[in-house]
Design a protein that fits this description.
By secondary structure, this protein is an alpha/beta fold. It is built from seven helices and eleven strands.
Length: about 220
Amino acid sequence: MNKDKIIEKNIKEKLEKERVSYGVDVNVRCINGHVTLYGIVDNLSEKNHAQKIAESVEGVKKVENNITIAIDSKITDRDIKQGVLRNLQNSKFHEEIGELGVDATDGTVTLYGKINNAQQEIESISQAAQAMGVKSVISKLELNKEHKIDNVSLVNLVVQKLSRYDLSLPDLVITANNGTVTLSGYVNNLKEKELANEAAESVNGVKKVINHIKIREKS
């Protein structure tokens, strides 16, 4: 079995484990490490999740996501908007950020309102993407004014948050620019890299995290 067939097999096996969340099969084609996904799923969240699964497989260089979202012809933009609003009310951050504004046009959802950190924006987008009929989500969410702080103070807050976890802070470099935090340096494994990313996203005042952290090579 050549490398491309092995990649296809590995992606399909990972997708198979997630089958409970998929309405219809997702098919995979791989040529020289370039993967194309096609098939039909129920919502944007499933489409995005299938891509993340494919991207996580060793040997994959690029993923083209041609998966189609099944759209019931009876679903209107009003239905989509109501579905998104219901999902947002179930968000774990709903009490913190309150009601968000939602527009829906031809299946494209736009979110408006104020958030405190990147984690809340990511969660809001994720909840919107799970609503039936949503083809794409555009975020126009903005940071609350009270959390717009200078770059030095933001870096200090991120450092404080990271210090609560078992990470080697001297090996990490943290910078901030207008709410965007960049992480670089070294950690021991992928779990630590993801942990640092999630911790930074949860800091009030952080709108976006760019993660350039590298995994330290084992000697």
